[in-house]
C-alpha cells in the first residue's frame, strides 16, 4: 500500500504539472482543466479504487481486535464515498486532497 500510495502521489503531481495546474495560484485553486482526460483523472480513479483496499484492511484490523484510533476508523470508512463525490462533481481540489492523503499513507503504511 505504501508503494501504491507513492505511485499515486507521483501520478497526481506529474499529471497536475502536465495539465499546467502549477502555473499560477488561480490555476492551482480555481480553474479545473477543460478535459476530464489525462493522468490526474486516471490516478484519481485508481485512488478511488485503493480506498476499497484500505476499507478491507481496516475491517480486517478491527476483526483482529487491533487497537485503532477513532480517526483511522472514520477516515477509512468515509473516504471512498468522499472521493467518489469529488470525482463526479469535478472538484478542483482533487489532486491536492488526493495527493495529501497519498503522502500520509506512504508514511503510515511504511511505518506499519
Please give a structural write-up:
The protein is mainly α. It is 75% helix and 0% strand. Helix 1 (2-18) packs antiparallel against helix 3 (39-63), helix 1 (2-18) runs antiparallel to helix 5 and helix 3 packs antiparallel against helix 4. The radius of gyration is 15 Å and the shape is elongated. The N and C termini lie close together (10 Å).
Describe the structure concisely for a colleague.
The protein is mostly helical and 112 residues long. The protein has helices at residues 2-18, 25-29, 39-63, 70-88, 94-111.
How is the secondary structure organized here?
Layout: H1 2-18, H2 25-29, H3 39-63, H4 70-88, H5 94-111
Helix pairs in contact: 1-3, 1-5, 3-4
The multimeric state of the shown protein is single chain
Q: Count the helices. How many?
A: 5
**What is the average of the pLDDT values?**
84
Q: Which structural class should the secondary elements be placed in?
A: mainly alpha
Number of strand segments: 0
| Overall 3D form | elongated
The CA-CA distance between the termini, in Å, is 10 Å
Which H/E pattern describes the elements? HHHHH
Instruction: Give a quick account of the main beta sheet: strands, pairing sense, barrel closure.
Output: none
Please indicate the percent range of residues in DSSP E strands (runs of 2 or more): under 5%
Q: Could you tell me the radius of gyration in angstroms?
A: 15 Å
Low-confidence stretches: none
Instruction: Work out the helicity level.
Output: over 70%
